[in-house]
Amino acid sequence: MSMKEAVFGGTVKGGNTGGRQFAGSSQAWLPIKNVINGVVVTRDNRFIKIVEVLPVNIYLKSPNDRQNIIAAYAAYLKIAPDDLQIEVRTMKADTADYVEQMRAFEEQEENEYCRDMIEDNIQEIGLGIASEAICHRFYLVFQYEARMKARQNTVKSIVERLNEEANTARSYLAACELEVLEPRYIDNFILTLLYEIINKKTSPRIRLPEGVFDMITTIHGIFE
């Protein structure tokens, strides 16, 4: 199952979208109502949590460390959500930041020969070899289920319960030497991730502007 299938599921028809629809627009077919505190709310009223995990190469660890990591991971799986999915995104490495940094060095460099060397580095590495490299990003995806037992049957309580579940994963996986990322602006992080999943070809060259989450909620309405 792909990341797109894990988040969006099958095509969702009908239902209250929480905002006005326009014929032929993305909100007319996209099965998502809103993103609330890092939780995706779908039009069929599922609540989905997505967290990104930074991997560790277990083969570089000592035998004792490997056993400890495996034991800690097994302990997490015992208490993890029943529908937990581990998704891997494979994509071309983003060299834009590297090239931008090298351009800044080039502008500040006074020596002409050094500037030429930096330009060669940009062309050969930043725009050449590295541009053909791929990277992998790892995610845990799970949804709210009855056994999680939110304090109340409200959107706020369900979102809080899913975020508690993410914190539990963070604690257990820390023992595996894995870091679960906690973005400062979690809604923007999720929105950008969904945008990249849907627009695989255009997203590498057309980025979402800063503050886009506030912009679209103002225009298209929010799910209360």
Q: Can you tag this structure with a few keywords?
A:
224 residues; alpha+beta; six-stranded antiparallel beta sheet; 7 helices; 6 strands; 43% helix; disordered C terminus
Mean pLDDT: 80
The tally of beta strands, per DSSP, is 6
Outline the biggest β-sheet: 6 strands, antiparallel
Q: Estimate the helix proportion, in percent.
A: 40-55%
Low-confidence stretches: 10-18, 219-224
Rounded to the nearest angstrom, the distance between the terminal CA atoms is 30 Å
Helices, strands, pairings?
Layout (H helix, E strand, L loop, with lengths): L2 H6 L23 E5 L2 E4 L4 E8 L8 H17 L5 E8 L3 H13 L3 H18 L4 E10 L11 H20 L4 E2 L5 H13 L13 H9 L4
Antiparallel strand pairs: 1-2, 2-3, 3-5, 3-6, 4-5
Helix pairs in contact: 3-4
Explain how this protein is built:
The protein is α+β, with helices and mostly antiparallel strands. It has one domain (3-93, 133-220). The chain contains seven helices and six strands; from the N terminus they run αβββαβααβαβαα. Strands 1, 2, 3, 4, 5 and 6 form a six-stranded antiparallel beta sheet that branches. The longest helix has 20 residues, at 155-174.
